[in-house]
């Protein structure tokens, strides 16, 4: 399997109902569905045979630059601390996992613009305050 494919973001649906999103590995861990099975949900032949079955859709999110990620990591941690929230508390309020918050703060994983917008909305600040300008 192409390693790049493991880094893409996907959304998993059953019919029209959203189940979860993340990388193939994250979805596999969360749902217990093997990666090879997940990838079959994206094939046209599977969709044709199972129109109301599970579907895996690649999501193209704009990734942030390294400089924007640096600023986001700093600002996320600062706003969390200013709000007297633990990573777990912030994760629960935003609907992400503790691990995701930790990875963003430690610059282990780059957030996409959708995530930045979620965080900005939660803290009631403009996106450019979190990530700066391009």
In short:
This protein is α+β, with helices and mostly antiparallel strands and 134 residues long. Helices cover 55% and strands 13% of the residues.
Structural class: alpha+beta
SSE pattern, N- to C-terminal: HEEHHHEHHHHH
Distance between the termini: 33 Å
Number of strands: 3
Q: Number of DSSP helices?
A: 9
Unreliable residue stretches: none
Shape: elongated
Biggest sheet record: 3 strands, antiparallel
Helix content: 55-70%
Name the beta content range: 5-15%
Mean pLDDT: 85
**For the largest beta sheet, what order do the strands appear in spatially?**
2-1-3
The rounded Rg comes to 17 Å
Can you describe what's shown?
There is one protein chain. The protein is 55% helix and 13% strand. With 134 residues, it is an alpha+beta fold. Strands 2-1-3 form a three-stranded antiparallel beta sheet. A hairpin with a 2-residue loop joins β1 (9-14) and β2. The longest helix is centred in the middle third of the chain and has 17 residues, at 66-82. The N and C termini lie far apart (33 Å).
């Amino acid at each position: 399997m192409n390693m790049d494919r493991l880094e893409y973001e996907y959304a998993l649906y059953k019919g029209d109902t959203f189940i979860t999103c993340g990388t193939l590995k994250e979805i596999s861990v969360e749902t217990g569905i093997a990666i090879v099975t997940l990838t079959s949900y994206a094939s046209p032949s599977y969709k044709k045979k199972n129109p109301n079955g599970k579907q895996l859709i690649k999501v193209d999110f704009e990734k942030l630059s390294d400089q924007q990620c640096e600023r986001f990591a700093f600002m996320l941690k600062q706003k969390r601390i200013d709000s007297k929230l633990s990573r777990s508390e912030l994760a629960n309020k935003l609907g992400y996992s503790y691990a995701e918050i930790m990875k963003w703060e430690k610059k282990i994983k780059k957030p996409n613009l959708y995530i930045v917008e979620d965080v900005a909305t939660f803290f009631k600040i403009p996106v450019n305050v979190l990530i700066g300008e391009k």
